[in-house]
Amino acid sequence: MKVSLFITCLGDMFYPGVGKDMVELLERHGCEVDFPEEQTCCGQPAFNSGYHSDTKKVAKHMIKTFEEAEAVVTPSGSCAGMLKEYPGLLEEEPKWRKRAEELAGKTYELTQFLYRELGVTDTGAVLHARATYHSSCHMMRLLGEKEAPYKLLENVTGLDLRDLPNRQDCCGFGGTFSVKMTPISEQMVDEKVDHVEETEAEILIGADSGCLMNIGGRMNRRNKKVKVMHIAQVLNHREIQEGGEDYADENRAGTNI
After folding, report:
1. pLDDT per position as a tens digit, 8-27
2. How many domains does one find in the chain?
């Protein structure tokens, strides 16, 4: 299958290694991957802030950008969810709505695509560490995907995956929410960090870069020695070679908290 990579803003600016891991994973499982260079932000920040007219312009651009793709795969449940909001956003423009529905129907978050479309349960990854997984809100609630990440992680050789208490709770990021409602966001992410600490995990895994930046940033400010990894990095991880580097630690900048 030919797959078009939607890298997302955070992936492009802060997590370029995640894109590399995605391409390697997809190609290893028989996909031909391309990258439409005209892609932009999905429009979620504007949409969530109520600027729907501006978001429509972005949506139409993204629809045109990925119109020829067989499948659109992204390392973000949040951004995949936003593309699936396009039909409702363009409800009053029937021609655009139809094109939006076609895009929404072929858009997938990475683990969702690997597990549900390609039938992959074991990527051959090896990572000897204690870890816990944060279930991001948009992936669970917008995409309805609660199973795929766990099915893939449970087959990572050497990974001691520990259940995160109250894993269904939001980390407090929510895009513009963490900026507009910082005191509430801070309390939410503190609770999340406390739960991560309860697991005694060495690594926090997630499928949305925004969540990882938020939680990772707060853990860094609280001097917690837990590293974060995007699930693409975990699923593509192999035993380190002599003189090589261990898992990525590009999360440490954090966000506003």
Report:
1. 999 888 899 999 999 999 99
2. 2
